[in-house]
Design goal:
Blueprint lengths: L1 E2 L44 E3 L1 H6 L7 E13 L3 E5 L7 E5 L1 H4 L8 E12 L2 E14 L6 E2 L2 H6 L7 E11 L23 E3 L4 E2 L20 E12 L2 E5 L6 E3 L7 E2 L1 H5 L8 E12 L8 E6 L7 E7 L10 E12 L2 E14 L6 E2 L2 H4 L8 H5 L5 E11 L23 E3 L3 E3 L20 E12 L2 E5 L6 E2 L2
Parallel strand pairs: 2-3, 5-7, 8-9, 11-13, 15-16, 18-20, 21-22, 24-26
Antiparallel strand pairs: 1-7, 3-4, 3-6, 4-5, 6-7, 9-10, 9-12, 10-11, 12-13, 12-14, 16-17, 16-19, 17-18, 19-20, 22-23, 22-25, 23-24, 25-26, 25-27
């Protein structure tokens, strides 16, 4: 068994709340104080050894320093708190509020821990705060205790307990908005805290399973039936809720929905925007440069030709462990951003290594033009596809300056975003190969000719363009 000694640090912290929820106090939190930080309690106070059942029975006074032994961790929200349980059944579980405790080395669901803490009640939720984990070893998760939805929605005895409720269906797909419907991405006039209401007034919440709200594992609509839902019962914002921990906690009648489609179907307009999609056995053709920190992403392709590629956006999140040629399954939400088709909220499964598709040879003029120009329909067909243009020359060294020329020192009004223009009005960008624009690989001047330029066809910032990935993508005579 591992032993831990924690130094108590005084300070302020954050209340526990649903991601994206308004800044009211969650019933599982104490205003202004992180339970994993300083409490002002004398370190010399002797803790009373007790059990979770005794704490829940009312036999222990509020603000008592207590010691809990051999409690199994059933759920963790990093930086916020955890749930522990002794045995099974009513009054066997409890919420522990404290960010530092969740960061304990080796802490995981299924571990058995000893801890000292202060017993408190806030907004009717019995909980421990200011926790110090004093010992940890391997434990065994209790079997979920079977409870009716009605009892979970009304009884405090199951707070903090790992439970299972059977045969429930959605009666309100979004109880936080008058529409009762999940909010579309980017909808400013819609409220959605990732909850659904099921039979007998029970709320199911995404606190432990953020992907729950997206409806990826069930249809988030009235009438969807669950053979069972497993999770931790909790009280939050005056509502008794069930918190699933993963997709494995949801048993959907008829099975999980099938969102499989193809890139070609998305790019051809057969899939509605904001739809959940799953793309199988696509090949990674490019990734954003390693220096990119805010707009990370990768491009995937199925086959070759028009409509065969699409962008997968990760933002500031790290990219999966892929390289050009990796084969992947990608699930996410289809979205349009400034004209660019993309998959967001993506989950990626790397299935192996494949062969990069041969670039599709396209006339430069067919790829070029502004997003609102006459050539848009032609160029958009190739968006996200690995393509090649041949026998072109630079017509503007700097496609973003007023005169098409490179900026000179001291001209603060001149713009240069690393993009030049070639025959046919096609813009060539350095987005995937930042050093392309510095002139070291070729002379960035009018007349510089290329036997071929290979890259990803893009639509960004109001223009269609091609983005070479590396020096080998550019061939000069």
């Amino acid at each position: 068994m591992q032993r831990f000694v924690w130094i108590v640090v005084f300070g302020l912290g954050c209340p526990m709340s649903n991601p994206g929820q308004d800044p009211r106090m969650d019933a599982g939190s104490i205003p202004g104080i992180d339970a994993g930080q300083g409490s002002g309690v004398d370190a010399g106070v002797v803790s009373t050894v007790t059990t979770i059942t005794e704490l829940r029975s009312g036999s222990v006074s509020v603000d008592t320093q207590v010691q809990i032994e051999a409690a199994v961790v059933t759920g963790i929200v990093a930086g916020r708190g955890l749930w522990i349980q002794q045995g099974s059944g009513p009054d066997s579980g409890l919420f522990v509020f404290g960010s530092q405790a969740t960061e304990t080395e080796g802490l995981a669901v299924g571990k058995s821990i000893d801890l000292s803490a202060t017993f408190t009640i806030y907004n009717e939720l019995k909980q421990l705060q200011y926790p110090t984990i004093t010992a940890m070893s391997d434990g065994q998760l209790p079997e979920p205790f079977a409870v009716s939805a009605q009892d979970l929605a009304t009884s405090p005895s199951f707070e903090g307990v790992l439970v299972r409720t059977d045969d429930v269906s959605i009666v309100n797909a979004n109880p936080d908005d008058p529409s009762g419907q999940p909010c579309a991405r980017g909808a400013d006039d819609c409220t959605d805290y990732g909850q659904i209401e099921v039979s007998d007034g029970l709320y199911i919440d995404d606190e432990l399973f953020p992907d729950f709200r997206r409806g990826r594992y069930f249809l988030r609509q009235v009438g969807t039936e669950f053979a069972s839902v497993t999770g931790i019962a909790h009280l939050s914002f005056a509502k008794r809720k069930l918190l699933p921990r993963s997709a494995d906690d949801l048993v959907v009648v008829g099975g999980a929905p099938d969102f499989s489609t193809t890139i070609q179907a998305i790019q051809s307009g057969e899939v509605a925007e904001d739809s959940l999609v799953e793309i199988r056995e696509a090949v990674v053709t490019a990734m954003t440069h390693s220096s990119e920190e805010r707009y990370r992403g990768m491009w995937i392709q199925q086959g070759r030709g028009a409509h065969s590629g699409i962008y997968v956006f990760f933002g500031s999140s790290p990219l999966p462990a892929v390289q050009p040629g990796s084969t992947v399954n990608v699930s996410g939400t289809y979205s349009e951003f400034r004209g660019q088709s993309q998959l967001v909220y993506a989950q990626v499964e790397v299935t192996g290594e494949g062969t990069l598709p041969e670039p599709s040879t396209v006339m430069a003029a067919e790829l070029a033009g502004p997003s609102d120009g006459d050539n848009h329909a032609s160029a958009e067909r190739w968006e996200g596809v690995l393509v090649r243009v041949e026998n072109v020359a630079v017509t503007q060294p700097n496609a973003d300056s007023d005169n098409g020329e490179l900026c000179v020192d001291g001209d603060d009004d001149c713009r240069d975003y690393g993009t030049f223009m070639v025959d046919g009005g096609l813009r060539v960008t350095d987005r995937l190969w930042p050093s392309m624009s510095d002139g070291s690989a070729f002379q960035r001047s009018v007349g510089t000719s290329f036997s071929a330029i290979v890259g990803i066809a893009e639509e960004a910032f109001g223009h269609h363009s091609i983005a070479p990935r590396q020096p080998a993508d550019v061939t000069t005579p």
